[in-house]
Task: structure prediction
Amino acid sequence: MKALYQALREAGLTYVNSVIDYGAGPGQFTQRTRLPRESLAQRSANCIDGTVLMASLLEGASLSPALVLVPGHAFVGWETWDGAGKWSYLETTMIGSSEFEAACQSATLQYDQATKLYPKQVRLHPVADLRRRRIWPME
Result:
């Protein structure tokens, strides 16, 4: 995981707050999700872009990633031991600005706070479960 994070840092991936989504209704604030290839080509990603990119890389490395959604934000998780139900988390918006350990600490803190404050709004979507439900990448 750390090697993938470092590779994205070395590739120059940075956070961008892209708030325009032409499909959002009145009063809705959403972000368009770009494909991993777009994020890599543009060397920028918002929270959901970085989460999808990192989850794709983890899935490609035969690890067990998850998309973690908390109110107003997304980050990536991965199962530390396959089938054990123990998860670690990574704040993908910090790839261009912080070390791996700080990004893990930030995501873990966010997850812990969100589960206490908004327990019904926290969603952990293991990619393997999404695949079983026939949810696949757009390409």
Remarks:
- The domain at 2-132 is CATH 3.10.620 (C8orf32 fold).
- The chain is about 40% helix and 20% strand.
- The two ends are 24 Å apart (CA to CA).
- The longest helix spans residues 100-117.
